[in-house]
Model the fold of this input.
Amino acid sequence: MTISDVYQRIENVGIVPVVRAPSSELAIRAVEALLEGGISVLEITMTVPDAVSLVSMLRKRYGNRALVGAGTVVDAAQARACLEAGAEFVVSPGLNLEVLAAVRARGVAILPGALTPTEVMAAAGAGADLIKIFPCSAVGGAKYLRALRGPFPALRFLPTGGVNLATAAEYIAAGAVALGLGGELVDIALLEAGQDEEISVRARKLVTAVAAARQSLAKPLRA
Done:
């Protein structure tokens, strides 16, 4: 899969779930629930115990069925370890140009975190094709994303942090190409209670909401 294919798949699916769990076992169950719910893009955070090995295992287990990436990558050494494990994309919570350069040098998709216009400009200038806006809801949510789109209409944004089912359509309308969701989707309490199916239900609802929001944008306005 080429780097362009990876970005296109992220955009097509429209949702990047942030899989953050206190154990690999719970993370695997979360992945299975997400796949059952129709979301095939998976961001495994480096805060999961033995996360690099988990990325490698998931790549082997699911092959082309899932797009497996590494998240919460905070330095170049960590990025290189994730790439060696087979991560198909790398996500960082903030802008680290060394991480960005290390991933781009390997021809792998990188989604650097940014928040301010200055950080967005720096990320784009370093070659980022898809920029994670984090924590988006803390600074105005969809309204903030729309404001960023004003001076940067050609850039592609992935708002993350506080995004949920109720706000999904607002973010799509504001110009998001995909949405990043953490605990609002991958709820550890549900997993610990054995309610994995509820995560699948949430995933299906989000897939439907994103599709409906995109369809609404595509409809011509009535005279």
The chain has a mean pLDDT of 96.
